[in-house]
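Technical note accompanying the year-one report. For the benefit of new consortium partners, we illustrate the data format agreed upon in the data management plan: each record pairs a sequence with a structure-token string. No post-processing was applied to the example shown here.
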Amino acid sequence: MTLIKQIFLHADTETILSIPLSRRQPPDRLIWGYTLEGNFSVNSAYKVALSLASDTTSGSASNTQEQGLFWHTVWNHRIPNKVKTFTWKACQDILPTKVNLRCRQVLEDATCEACGLDPEATDHLLWDCQQPRETWELSGIPFDITGIRYRDFKDLLWYLIFTKHVDRDLLALIVTVAWCMWFNRNKTRLGSPRQPSHEILHKARLILEEFQLAHF
């Protein structure tokens, strides 16, 4: 206690001394608070740094006018409503991924079933995992889809809309491809075979073509 008082300021000392100690007295260990497992990774640290930075590659999302324009762009796409709803949920990070289900204590294991390596979070599912990376590369869509640049799906779309200024048709294809990845993941969890990347792309383009022929 004396050592703590010597090192820290009075307010910090009171906070430290108020922390309850475990009666089991387990051995001390370092925990990184920004991953589910408590383990430090360079990727997670980079994402934390991005979230704290006042200026990122995708620009600040705090401006009310830009926020309004962002959501106007999302909701006014020429895409099926199910894809719009998916896009909104992905931007809010409320898709029932295995990570989110584990946070709600629905699942115990959040490991991605496609790669068996990393937790199945939204960013992993839509661009970090091997199959989505292959899908985006096969699509020929001209932007860098490596996950380390983007904090989340909203940050990705924000970057595409306000920094890359992609046109509406390309943006519609991107979110529809993402929906098809999510649909493929759900069908696979129910026992269907996993679709290869070229089938996912074909399905996305067909959905857009049929929707736009029927509505415009």
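Partners are asked to follow this layout when depositing records. Confidence is low (pLDDT under 50) at residues 54-61.
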